[in-house]
């Protein structure tokens, strides 16, 4: 297990909330570290505690099954559950509270508002939350903590703690960009990275490698999307940075809004892109030919020169050339594609040679098919 680093302020806030009445809801994206934060915050807490986890809406009191025993079919289910639970815990930890069944959610609310139990619960950002849980925050009974992605500095500190030594600044920035500040992606990114210690600092050498485990995690995230969201992600992955107007013409607008809320898509008008290159690469691999065909319909037809010369570029050279045509610097392109600036410069040199051009301003006509 990686050391707990970079979330100390959030941990202190949760612990503070647990010393007061009510409690706190921890909201974060998948892989943001909300479950680990919950566990670290509960360490050393005073008073009796119980921990439950939302498992879906199908089974009444499913989250509390290990505490209540076999449920009966009483006239008053909540009253039965309160009696079966016995002495209420001083602290109740609920992981994945957005997955609580209605009966479990009602029991949580009762314990907090009627029995004085203090609550620490995690919810997934952007997911529907059961009304009894949502009401605790809305009515001011419980506080809410929105868990942001790690910033570059926090990413560097976590890497240094995990690797047992300082991490070179550019390496920390590349790792942050590749993971999007997502703790789970970061921990799975490191095993596939070529890291070497140079002058006492860890350096990431080479390009981004997606390990089978990393791909599996991203595919599981993408598999949770509905069809409209899947189509929108595919369109962005295949065309990024895609023109926002094109995306909104082709994709369901509500789906795009949901993806933005979940942190999968970043909208910076007039363009849209995926939050990090790991998701983008896996999404491109998963995108069906139909999605590519739909996107191609709104791409201007290339002229003969563009079609002839762009065919000579490799996939990586096309990516670099496309970003360079938007006047991004080598450093910005390197961050975007998780490369070193020197590698970007080498790619651009080959692009210029193949296309017979001399600067970024000459690239646009050649990229109509890229």
UniProtKB/TrEMBL annotation:
Q: Which Pfam families match?
A: GerE (PF00196)
Keywords tagged on the record: DNA-binding, Transcription, Transcription regulation
Q: What is this protein called?
A: HTH luxR-type domain-containing protein
Biological process (GO) annotations held by this record are: regulation of DNA-templated transcription
Q: Where is the HTH luxR-type domain?
A: 306-370
- Show the stretches that span the lipid bilayer: none
**PROSITE patterns attached to this UniProt entry:** HTH_LUXR_2 (PS50043)
Q: Record's CDD domains?
A: LuxR_C_like
- UniProt keyword annotation of Disulfide bond present: no
Answer yes or no on keyword Transcription regulation.
yes
A GO term for molecular function: DNA binding
Query: Which PANTHER family does the UniProt record give?
Result: DNA-BINDING TRANSCRIPTIONAL ACTIVATOR DEVR_DOSR (PTHR44688)
Enumerate the Gene3D superfamilies for this protein: Winged helix-like DNA-binding domain superfamily/Winged helix DNA-binding domain
